[in-house]
Structures are given as structure tokens and as C-alpha cells.
Amino acid sequence: MKHRVDVWEAIGKEAKNNEAYKASEDEFISDLLAVINTTYRASFPDLINRDFDGYDIDGDGFISPKEHEAFFYSWGIPTNYSAEAFKALDTDGDGLITRDEYIQGATDFMFSEDENSPYKNFLGPLLE
Ligand SMILES: [Ca+2]
Ligand SMILES: [Ca+2]
After folding, report:
1. Any idea where the domains of the chain sit in the sequence?
2. Pick from 29, 77, 103, 117: CA 20 to 30 A from residue 87's CA?
3. How many angstroms does the Cα of residue 17 sit away from the middle of ligand 1?
4. For residue 57, which of 46, 68, 47 has the smallest C-alpha distance?
5. Rounded mean pLDDT of 18-35?
6. Which CATH superfamily is domain 59-128 in?
7. Where would I find the EF-hand domain in this sequence (predicted)?
């Protein structure tokens, strides 16, 4: 949680004295890039382990397709994109996402610069 707050504080540093401040897309990206290569990268495994626990609603150690839809819903991502993202994460195709599968996908999504990464739709497709 602390690291997530660090990220938002870095992004929102201009906002402290200005309640009406809105980050532009460029500001958001440059601030995110600045913080991503510092504490955020080191804390990422911790962060995504906790995310996994949050998305594994029934606590059985796997993210089911229904739980994945709930994860998309909680982020405001249209749930019709869930199945495709789920399929990319479920690398062994057993119909469930293990912690390792999730961590692999989330890490690749966050840090890979490969435009053709199978995990590029981890949070749904980019808007046109
Ligand atoms: Ca579960
Ligand atoms: Ca699997």
C-alpha cells in the first residue's frame, strides 16, 4: 500500500497546493516513469502478490474466470475483455490462473517494452 501511495504522490506532486490540478497524459506518464524505476520496481512483487490475494475472492489460490471478471469490473474495465486477458494469463490452459501465472503476466505487462507481448491486454485493449 505504501508504494502505491508513493506512486500517486509522485504523480500528484503538483496537486498538493492546487485542488483543481489535473495531470495531463504526458505529465502522468513522465511521473509514472520516474517512480517506476525507483521504489516501485523493487516493491512490485509484493504489490502484485497482494493484488492476487484481492482478486482470489474465495481464497482457493487460483483466479477463476468469474473472479477475473470481477477484477476487471473493479477497475472499470469492460468485462467482455476479461476472457481474452484471462486466456493470456492462463499459460497452461487449465482454466485457472495460478499465483505464478498472474505474477508472470503482471510483471511482463508492467515492465516489458515488447509491443507483441502476450500480456499486452492484461488490463484490456488500448483504446483506439
Ligand atoms: Ca479463487
Ligand atoms: Ca493455469
Report:
1. 1-55, 59-128
2. 29
3. 43
4. 68
5. 75
6. EF-hand (1.10.238.10)
7. 77-112
